[in-house]
Design goal:
Blueprint (H helix, E strand, L loop, with lengths): L9 H8 L4 H9 L4 E2 H8 L3 H7 L6 E3 L6 E3 L1 H16 L2
Antiparallel strand pairs: 1-3, 2-3
Helix pairs in contact: 2-3, 3-4
Length: 91
Amino acid sequence: MRGGVDTISAPAMGALLMPRSRDELRRALDEGEWLRVGDLATVLDVSASTAHRLLGNQIGFKFKPGGKQRIADPADVRRLLEESEQTHRGQ
């Protein structure tokens, strides 16, 4: 081990820690996945601070099992995305 990380498993860990693209996150939403704040910020194209403010105001959330991290309700995120797309299309 070097630096606290097993060098044999480091590449595999890196693959797990890679941020997902906006398209991957949209697919995850369609499958009903609850998103972490960072993923929420990515999919909505807002800052992490804005994503935190949206939780509880416009987006329902629950706490991730075993921790204090909030995760966003996929139905509310999809609703905000649809509203945003309609606004930008002028409908």
